[in-house]
Amino acid sequence: MNTIIQEVTDRIIDRSRVSRAAYLAKIERARKQGPLRGELSCGNLAHGFAACGKEDKADLRSMVKANIAIVSSYNDMLSAHQPYEDYPQKLKKAISEVGSVAQFAGGVPAMCDGVTQGNPGMELSLMSRDNIAMGAAIGLSHNMFDGALMLGICDKIVPGLLLAGLSFGHLPTIFVPAGPMPSGLPNKEKARIRQQFAQGKVGREELLDAESQSYHSAGTCTFYGTANSNQLVVEVMGLHLPGSSFVNPGTELREELTNAAARQITRITDLGDNYMPIGHVVDAKTMVNGLIGLLATGGSTNHTMHLVAVARAAGFIVNWDDFADLSSATPLITRIYPNGSADINHFTAAGGMSLLFKQLLDKGLLHNDVNTICGFGLERYTQEPRIIDGELKWVEGVAESFDKEVVADINKPFQPNGGLAVLSGNLGRAIMKTSALSEPYCKMKAPAIVFEDQYSFDAAFESGALNKDCIVVVRFQGPAALGMPELHRLTPPLGVLQDEGFKVALVTDGRMSGASGRVPAAIHLTPEAFKGGTIGKIQNDDIVEIDTITGELTLHVSEAELANRTQAKIDLTLSHQGMGRELFAGMRSTLTGAEQGACSLFVEQDRLDSGTL
Length: 613
Fold this sequence. Notes:
alpha/beta; 16 strands; Rossmann fold; four-stranded parallel sheet
């Protein structure tokens, strides 16, 4: 193993000894206590299988055959989740054919950041992750199940389902993807038209045509944002079938992989000899593997929060220093938009997941001594699925990239590091995705232009007030303030300023996430303005410095001057009402900071661990 990766793994294990031991004890108690179908009262059990057919009822009474929970995020407004419409029936059929039973345990919400971007609904986006976790937990809480199949793709959905699955860590759990849509309008052309619209050079009709050619059918969006980062990370963690992440919907291979996932979950329940619960799959080495997969491919910065929360759900404490050190040891070996011009289908064509696994394993960058849903070790994941003579089989993946502009030779990477910088200084701590920048590092010192929301930025851009070297500061966008919305509406105008020769960057306590691009953006700044962070004391024309080489984020104002300044305050009442936002007031008030996962689910556990409860 790479020595840095081993050191980070060891320190995660050391700092998490108490919390991980408590987690393992919890899931062992749950294993011993259930499922209790055979011991439920007659009324309880009758409720649990009332809608089942005669044979399924007999099987569920006997406790001889496995009962698999299906939890789905299906809705037909989201292209990524629309294919899930008929998955429950397909999964039930495949499970029945191997002598077990499946029940649809529950549906969870799935919202699209692409639809809500720049609108009030976006302020529910991050909080929806915890809502999804709670919804899935309710579905699993009936104690009727021996395993679970999780159907989810996009931004907050997969992390939410992971949080729920890990809270039922005694249950074997497999994630079942649906795949990306076929390639449409090239991402580079889409970005060009977006910038032309921001400049007023094309109208809404032309913009809508371009967007419709990009997002054109069922399946995940093809750029490498949070949705596709989810799929890649989950496969690297051994929770997908090998090579199943990026197979297009509606294909024969996709159908066979779905059926295979259904069969596999029945093989790893506690009723057989190959019991493998999700709580034993996800350990410290698995978590580090997920981080390495993310960093080696320049994945979504949302996972600097999501994977912290997921680790916490499994009893591990992960922080941004772990991300930074792992990034320093992990070469960037893919170029997928926004880190390049290729899309996720081009990545698959160049060699895809099997090649990624092979290169990372050969270089000692992944822990191979881990559990997966397919057994011990990651060798199976260097294989790729194929339909051969009408049957699903796995064959050895390619040994070399078919397109080294998309997947590099690991000995000649695109960057020597994973392209994720952690910045610290008198402003707090922030994340910057450097893998998409034109230069591998950002070193910039410029006057600040401060905005209290993303909408006031538009007027400043249109007036020409931003036509200069500057660092745009957008505050009161953090978890406690607004639920931490994404700020992608800022990307095209900032790109225009960059193309016009101005040096520009963004500093915010909000998010930019998976589509963070070539404009330097210090995001997830914590402490946030709403909680008294120093970002709330920045004034126009203050000098801000960003240096990803030294890892510094500095406000060049003296401590004495800062102590005399009044913290900015704004009235967020209207931002907490309408579009359902008032319903999330309680959750918003308990969200932790970005580095702690921006999570509301472990407040009581954190108090127990700290001795304050």
